[in-house]
Amino acid sequence: MPSSPCSSQNNRLPDITESAGDTLVYDREILNIGSSDFILIDEVNEKKETNLKTFCKQIANKTKSAFRRKNIPKRLPFLQWWSTYTTEDCIGDLLAGITVGLTLIPQSMSFAALAGLPPQHGLYGSFVGSLMYVFLGTCKEVPMGPTAIVSLMTYSTLNGRGPVYGTLMCFLSGVIQLIMGLLGLGFLIDFISGPVNAGFTSAVAILIVLSQIKDILGIHAVGSTLPHMVVSLSKDIGNIRVGDVVIGSVCIVVVLLLRMLVLIKVGPKEESERNKGQRIVNRTMWLIGTFRNSIVIIVTTFIGFLYVDSSGHDVTSNEMPPIPFKVIGKIRPGLPDFDFPKFSVAADNGTTVGFFEMVSNMGSGVIVLSIVALIENLSICKTFSVGKPVDATQELLAIGLCNIGNSFFHAYPGTGSFSRSAVNAASGVRTPLGGLYSGILVIVALLFCTPYFYYIPKSALAAIIIAAVIFMVEIRVVKPIYRSKKSDLIPGLGTFFACLLLQMEIGILIGVGLNLISILYHAARPKLSIRVNTTRSGINYLMMTPDRCLIFPSVDYVRNIIIKHSLKQNLPVVIDCSHIYGADFTAAKVIELLTIDFSRRGQLLFFYNLKPSLVTVFEGVRPKDFNIRLFYESQDIDQLLNKHMIVNSTPADG
Questions:
Q1: For residues 648 and 598, what is the distance between their CA atoms, to the nearest angstrom?
Q2: CA separation (Å) from 231 to 47, 224, 248, 351, 481?
Q3: Rounded to an integer, what distance in angstroms lies between the CA atom of residue 148 and that of residue 467?
Q4: What is the pLDDT of residues 245-297, one digit of tens each?
Q5: Does the predicted model carry a pTM greater than 0.85?
Q6: Contact 256, 248 (CB under 8 A)
């Protein structure tokens, strides 16, 4: 009988004997995860000398481990599920992929218009990324493609410079995301807090609605900030087209009504208690509600065809047809050509704009867009992880490579979409292979349906966008934030108004800045508990207890308080270091000055329960006359005070 893994000595898992925070103790081996600069360490381990040779050796070991056979499935996640793929999985992925694809096609064209690019560029970014994510992605619900937030940020960054800049922006954002994944810089995303993210998302939703009002009204307007948009809309408000208003308004109402249809359930609340007829009706209503965008596009396209055909307009010309509403017009048919992003472009005056000038023209929006796209994608992964850990590094690599791949097919930046992820999950997707069928459906649309896209009313696409983003305004989070911590409303509201009134990348940086200011303020102003204690022998002393680590923003503040109260009370001072779990060079220098001050005026200063790791930090400055007095047992204070009182009083008695 073969021995089980549990009984095998070699395969036995180590016993966990202790667990504390991010430190796991396996028998006698300790695994530390995360930064150790300010962790609580009671013992000082033997110092290991670090030089260039050892550093290079560590890098080589990390690189070697990344390409070990056991780590390959982490970087190619499809290897984890491909061997167990079943027929049921295939059917579930096929149905979900087709459902998401029918949602993706009209959405991608709408979002391309939002980005200020021709509609086909939204489709270009909807199949290569989907196919690549099948092999690289870890979350089965994520459908790669254009999104509302990324599209508006693309519009703001490009500022009307056209598809060539959009393709380069897609490539650069992918490179930035890939580098972040390779260097483990995903932690930077953690600096965008929930309130900042909510304020940013709400502001973007309002800006998106305003940007689409022009197509609903059939007028011309530009702008990427609230004041600019309002002024631009008011200038052309006299040229409203009734046909666009009617089609746009009706489409918004229809899309919202069909959206509500998804929520309606016939029969008992429990699925198992419904009969076959009720399940068929519920499934039919769900499909109609899910395909609402496609239904609206198909119907309005047919209406557009009837109007254009009755007008006798030549659809091969570059002129727009003389009908009561605007249509998309000519779209380049077929699949995009495989081509490298352009790193230079010819200007109107005949000169050539180089790579660095192109990047300078786009500004910091490329970096901010890359981070926002990652936030969107990781938020989806966390939502659908169902208790499983999210491999943020792999998602960074996957999104980066997908955007790089998209850039070779004339796409603009994309990421995972919340709305399509919800459709994917509700459709019963089993694995990331569902993205394959969505991508194939987009390819079919590009090959055979582009002639019919000519007749799609622009107001119908605008209606789809408006109906999708109005629910992104996160009013519901204001009350919980207010009840939880009122000060968190400051960065949230600051981000909201800054994104509305300024460029979006500036707005989100302001929000992050407000968060950092709050964090730094609390780090610079630790609380100190101050009280007068009396020993058993009747000696009074001043006990001061800081509540956190000593680092450079806070040490001068702590020193001033200690000096102020020590002079006022004129008693021996004991600093309780039980809560001080970290210190830096600046803190060590301040402690040196503090001990010198106390020594010069003959006032006693003791440090209680100072961690050995902190003693090492303080000794590292090698100060002169740095006679620090330490003790670790509370009962020792009585003996120490009596001893030093006798020593200090002996010369005076003589």
A1: 13
A2: 65, 11, 22, 33, 33
A3: 11
A4: 999 999 999 999 998 988 888 888 887 788 888 889 888 998 888 888 889 99
A5: no
A6: no
